[in-house]
Structures are given as structure tokens and as C-alpha cells.
Design brief:
The complex is a heterodimer of chains A (533) and B (307).
Chain A lengths: L33 E6 L14 H10 L4 E3 L5 E3 L2 E6 L5 E6 L12 H12 L8 H6 L5 H5 L10 E5 L2 E5 L21 H7 L15 E7 L3 E6 L13 E6 L3 H9 L5 E3 L5 H7 L4 E14 L12 H10 L2 H9 L4 E2 L23 H15 L7 E8 L2 H14 L4 E8 L1 H9 L5 E7 L6 H4 L15 H10 L6 H14 L2 E13 L3 E2 L16 E2 L3
Parallel strand pairs in A: 1-10, 14-15, 14-16
Antiparallel strand pairs in A: 2-3, 4-5, 5-7, 6-7, 8-9, 9-10, 11-17, 12-16, 12-17, 13-17, 18-19
Chain B lengths: L1 H28 L13 H10 L6 H15 L13 H36 L4 H15 L2 H15 L17 H27 L2 H8 L4 H29 L3 H7 L4 H11 L2 H29 L6
The chains are: A alpha+beta (533), B mainly alpha (307).
Chain lengths: 533, 307
Amino acid sequence: MTKLFATTALIAALAMPAYAVQPAEGETLAENQTYTYWLLDAIKSLDPAKNTDVEGSDALRSLFEGLMIEDAQGNMIPGVAESYEVSDDQLTYIFKLRDANWSNGQPVTADDFVFAWQRVVTPATASEYAWYIELMNVQNATAIIAGEMEPDQLGVRAVDEKTLEVTLTKPTPYFISTLSHTTAYPVPRAVVEEHGDAWIQPANLVGNGAYTLASHNLGVEIVFQKNPEYWDADNVVMETVRGVTVNDNNVALTRYQAGELDRVQIPAGQYPRLSEQFPDQAVSVPYGCSYAYVFNLSEKGPEVLKDQRVREAMSLSLNRDVIVDQVLQGGQRPAYSWTHWAINGFAAPEGGMAEMSQEQRTERARELLAEAGYGPDNPVRVQLQYNTDDSHRLLAIAAQQFWRPLGIEIELNNVEWAVHTDRLQNQDFQVARYAWCADYNEASTFLDWFRTDGYNSGKWSNEEYDRLLAEAATAEDTTPLYQRAEEILAEEVPAVFVYHYAKVDMINPAIKGLPRENLRNTWYAKDIYRTAE
Amino acid sequence: MFAFILRRLAVAIPTLLLLIVFSFVLMHLAPGGPFTGERALPPAVLANLERQYGLNDPLWLQIWNYLYNIVVHFDFGPSFVYPDRTVNQLIAAGFPVTLTYGALSFLAAVIFGVSLGVVAAIWHNSWVDYLAVGISIGAQVLPNFVMAPLLVLVFTLWYRLLPGGGWSFNDPSFWIMPVIALATSYMASIARITRSSMLEVLGSNHIRTARAKGMPEHRVIIRHALKPAMLPVISYLGPVFVSMITGSVVIDIYFSTGGIGKAFVDSALNRDYAVMMGVTILIGTLTILFNLLVDVLYAWIDPKIRY
């Protein structure tokens, strides 16, 4: 090894060991340690390489454990990794693994991580989340996915049984925070090689998480049992965890009230009533997603939207307070920035429309439209596309009402989900509803979206913006860069930012240990316990 | 009769083939695909997925491979959206559930529907008739998507008698609400068809003759009226039976049974091509089979019908 680790900052072995959350003093544990949570739909896959959704991730967090896990605030704490070192050039990470076992009693080795990550990028695996290894900037990931290199060229190797070395293509400030994601989980090489695709069947499944799979009736119920082989099993209180699928949110709420579920999402619009009736159960916490109306600024987009004044007028005159307080009513917040307000270390730029009153905004919008030559007599006509959903429809109708008096006539265009995303990705829309959720707790997870080579469905492009974000990737202090980026978004209005999400749930007060400050609602069943009444 | 059945079965094969080809083409014409989502996949990732699932082959080759695997291996392919499972596994898990609550609902609908209809016809224009008609109209206007959450509210939340959803083959308490919710509107239709058909038969010549012979009324009804009155009911029951045992998306959603009714609708929305084709073929086959069965039953009931 030629790299100099002598001068390397040893970020290692955090002072606090990563033990499961413990009951507080004065709390009595219930006899029956079972937690039943609600699933809107069937779990699509339990294979870390193939999981793509929130329901699957929640299940996988019980069955597997990555190098890092998250605490109740979403901070990274050691999981399978006991400590790590990073080289001066920030391109090499060396992880020391703890003594941990798979549920079949075999040790978890560095090679299991190497195998798992290689498996994700191998074209034949057909992993939808192969891009995640690219996002982590692991060396050669892109070339392997494209079929130009062999999977064993991936920048990850087992130095010895308990030492893992990862090589990155460029310094990646958020690298450590990507490690709690399910795509970066280890899989047991021996089991996968023995059973092939069938390794994920309940009879064969072997994991290294705090729980094992007891049963899985697709679309009905999934049951996890405490795993005695888990390295921290002594500190795990909850014995059984059940995920119960209820496809209708209102029925799920009824079943929560009948005591069949310990946690359920509150259906849209019911939070005010429920929080009054059950103040100890109705919970609203910030959730790291932002909702927007994206403008199509590509060649296929309508001419009228290329006038920045029109876009700005639409943004100014959308009364977000009414949307948040009267339509959504669940603790969401009006959005004047793309980055969610609760993202770690993010501060929205000062000034701007956030500090104007709605009257001032609407007045300014009128002026801008008049300048651009539009008004009630000569209205702007555009189509707003959204996917089938009651709350999207309500919001679109509200927007229509705010815009109409100023001379912006919106035609609502409701399409099913697959059509909506297809049109977004092919720029076959004028204005479209969109939402983005944080992959990790740092502003670039949002801001990257508007980079010229980002997802950026509306094809807005700004050189300064791209440069700021490139700079931010290695900068010591990212705050001024991100603030400037948000200012550019506010000036050029590639989208109307509508609101920042909140997660609104009913939670059984006997259930403790669920995180309330984790922006992505990453919860671990091992941290949960049930108190006696 | 035997030749008739053979002939019908011979026609069934090209019919199914047409169904498969048409559905396959239509499905691929719909915008989007199984891998379009909130975030556009990088082209290389998408290409790997499409290659793995054979989506980059020309359509005719995809159809050919699909048919080949079905005929030779009875393999309906992997699910695109549930990568841990094959279509065979998904249908094997979901169809028995749907079949159970569907068949029970069918029985309940037929037994109660026919009884209600017969009783109403016999005591035509009496309070019994009005009551029976009232019940069936009530059952008809209460759609199952209203009925289902109402049942959960009453039996799960208020009386705590039944589980609010889910499924178990060992515990009939999971079956009760789905059966009630699915059966009611069918029961209402059966009752109305039975009543009007029964009224017509009761006014016909052979019934008058039977009565003139001095035959007791109950024998007139059971022996001479019921059988011919069942003809229109049976032609209604054939397709109804198929649609009941292949599931109801409403029942599956509200009671989270894991049945294939919801799987079918989801597969269309998710563009899960293989699952969608699998369930289409299942429903198509059952429909053809039960229509044939109805025709055979017809001949048995009505000696005037000859094939």
C-alpha cells in the first residue's frame, strides 16, 4: 500500500458504542414484545440488490446490517464496521469489521461486502439500484454497469477477513452516509452461490440483522423474529416484528383504532381531528421530501414558460400557506427552497419571497405578468400534469384557483403513474407535479437534481449552478455555496417549490424507541420496545 | 354432445392464442415500462434490465419466447416488479385465496339469491315479495367499496368480532367479511332474475296443466317450475362465477387478502408485463371453460336444446 495513512485523520471508532436503544428509567416493559406496523403494499423484494422502495428498506433493515447504521437523529454510527480510516486524498476508506455472524452462525467477512457490491453492479443481476454504487463513487462502478469491465474490477476489496478497503473515483463528502442504505448491505456469499436466485426464499434466507424472517405471505403479512446470532442481541428487546399490509389507508386507520396495528399513516386531511382527539398518538415530524411543479424548459416545452417573468409570477402567486394549512393540514411547511428545511446544516438564503407577504407576492406577480404582456385579458395557457392521486388533484385545483385571477389558465391533465413518469423523462409535458426525497441527509441530495446532468426533467441548465455544486463536493464549508445555488433557483425559477413534507402518523403510545428526528424516518426494529400500560 | 364439447375445445385454443397476442401487443403499446419510476434510470442500468428480461428483443420474438416457455415448460416468466418471485409462484399463492372467497361468495349469492327470488315470485305482490325486492334492491345499491369499510368498522372496530383484514386458510374468521362484501350485489341480481323468470314460468301452460291435475303446489314449484326458471339464471351465473373466483380488486384492497384481483390491476399499473399476461391467460381460460360448462348445463336442463 503506497498511500500514507500515517497522517490520516482517524475518524474512527466513535466514542459511543452502537448499542440498541434501552428503556428509560421508570419504564416497565410489556410482557408481550411484539410490534405491528402498517404496510401500504406488498414488499417487492427482500434482496438488498433488488430492493427499490421504502417498504422493502424497512424490512431489510431488520434482516441485514450495513457497515454503518443510523441513530435516532439520522447520524451515522457503526454497524458491522467497528471503525474506519480515510486517506488524505479522501479516496481510500479502510473499514475494520466487528465480530458479527450471519444468522446461520457463519462469520460476516469483508469478502461478503465485496461479493454483495460486485453483485449489484454485475449486469446479469439486473439491479435497478446499480446506480447507487455509482452515486457512492466507488471506482469502476460505471464501467462495470456498462459492461466495459469485469465486476471484480470494482473498487472494493477484502484486505483480510475483517478489513475492507474501498476506493473512490473522487472525494465524496457524503460517502459514509451512503453506507446505511440497503443497496450497500452485505450478502452471504456461500448462501447466494449455493441457492442462486432462490437464496431469498424464506427457507434459504440468511441475514446478519437483528431479526430473521419467520414468514412472508406476500401482500398480507411479514413476520420477523429476534435473531440470537446478532452481535448485539443482548440489547435487543423487541421479540417479534410484524408488517401488516392494508391497501387502503382509511381501513388501516380503523384497524389501528381496533388495536390491530401499532403504527399507521394518517390519511390526508385527518391530522387536525386526530391530534385533537388523540394528542398522545398523532405525530407529525419533518420528512425529507420536497414537492414541486416543474417547468419544461427543453425544446419540447411551451414558449411561454421560457419567459422567466411568467415562471416567477406563477411561483409568487401560489399561496403556499393555504395549501399547507387548509389542504394538507398535517404539519407540512411551505417551500421557498428546493432543499428541505430540516436537512442537516442547511440554511435557506435570506430575503426573497419567503419574507414577503402573500399580498406583496401577488402584486409583484401581476406586475411581472403585465411586463411580459399577459393578464386576465390575454391569459397564459399551460397544462399541469399530475399522476392519479387525491391530494395531487386537490393541490392542482388549488393552484388553478390562485393562478386564474392573474390571467394564468391551467388545464389539469391527470394521468396514471407510469404515463406520468414516462412523459416526465421524455419531456412530454408543460408543467408537471414532482417530488424528490433525500437519499442522504445533506443538501446536495436535493440540489444535484437541477444540475445539467442531474435528473432535471425540465432540462433547466445554469453554468454557475453546476460549478457551485462541483465545488461543494470538496469544499470545507458548503453553506455559502448551497445558499447561492438556492438563490439561483429562486431567481430563475425552473420549478415552483410547493411544500416540504412531514410524516404524519398515529403511533401507539406504548411503543418507544421510534425515531422522531430522523429526516428519512429510518427506523430499526432493534431500537424499539413496548412498555406496559 | 361429445362431439360438441370437442369442437368447442378445439376453438378454445386459437381463441386463447389471439387473446395472448392481442394483450401482449396492447400491453407493450402502453406508455412507460416496468422500470419507469420517480427517477429515470441511467441508460446503462436500464439496458442491463431490459437485456435480462428480454425486453430489447423484437416484439414477435418476445411473444414467441413467451408462448414457447408456457407450452414447453409451463413457465409464465419472472415478475418484473417482484423480482424474488415468478409469475407461477405469484399465481399459485394468490389464486387459492381468491378461489376460496370467490367460490364461497358464489355459493352464498346463489343460495340466498335464488331463495329470495323464488319466495318473491310465489307470493307475488304480497308483503313477502316487497320485502324480498326491497332487500335485493338495497343490496344492489350498496356497492362493495362502501360495504367493505363499513363491515370493518362494525365488526372490527365496534364489536371486535372479526379480524379487519388479512388471510389465513386455517381460520374462517378471515373469510367472513370478504364473502359478505363480494356476495351481496350478485345475490341481488340473482334474486331479481330468478323472480322474473319464475313469474313467467308460473304463468305458462304446463304449470296450469300440472295444477289442473291436482298436483300439490310445492311439487308444482319444485318439479315443474324451478328447473325451467333456472335457465336465464344459469346463463348469468357462468361469467359471474369466473369473475368471482378470479377476484375482486375491491375485496383485495379493503381486506388485504393477497388475492390475484389486486395483483392483476397492479400489474397493469406497474407494467409488470409477465404477471399481467399470466392473470389474463388464467381468466381467459376459465371464462372459456365455464361458458362451455354453461352450454352443457343448458342441454341437460332443457331437452329442446340440441347441439
